[in-house]
Write a structure and sequence with these properties.
Order of helices and strands: EEEEEEEEEE
Oligomer: single chain
Low-confidence stretches: none
Number of strands: 10
CATH superfamily: Rieske [2Fe-2S] iron-sulphur domain
Distance between the termini: 6 Å
Shape: globular
CATH class: Mainly Beta
CATH architecture: 3-layer Sandwich
Number of domains: 1
Length: 103
C-alpha cells in the first residue's frame, strides 16, 4: 500500500487537523490526544468537503459543514442523517517523525 507523507508530527499537534491530497483523493488527518486518524474528505451525502467542518475530539466525530451529518473518525461510519453511507478511513503511522497515511 503506498504511503502519503502528510507532515512532520510536530506540525500536527493534539487537537489539530490537516487536509491533504493524493491525486483525486482528499483526506483529513486528525490528532486526537496523540492518536492519529485519517478520513476521506468527502461527505457521503452530497460529495461535499467533510473535514472543513467542526469536530469533537472527545467523541471522535467530524460534522459535515454543509448539512450537519456526523461521522466517526475511527470507522468512517455515518452517525446522523442526512448521510447514511460511511466514508473511507485510512491507516496512519509515524515513521522517522513523519506522519504517513496508507492510501
Amino acid at each position: 500500500m503506498p504511503a502519503l507523507e502528510v507532515c512532520p508530527l510536530d506540525e500536527l499537534p493534539p487537537g489539530s487537523v490537516k487536509i491533504v491530497r493524493a491525486g483525486q483523493l482528499a483526506l483529513g488527518v486528525y490528532n486526537v490526544e496523540g492518536e492519529l486518524y485519517a478520513i476521506e474528505d468527502r461527505c457521503s451525502h452530497d460529495d461535499g468537503p467533510l473535514c472543513e467542518g467542526d469536530w469533537d475530539p472527545e467523541e471522535r466525530v467530524v460534522t459535515c459543514p454543509r448539512h450537519g451529518s456526523n461521522f466517526d473518525l475511527r470507522t468512517g461510519e455515518a452517525l446522523t442523517l442526512p448521510a447514511f453511507q460511511p466514508v473511507e478511513t485510512f491507516p496512519v503511522r509515524v515513521e522517522d517523525g513523519i506522519v504517513k497515511v496508507d492510501v
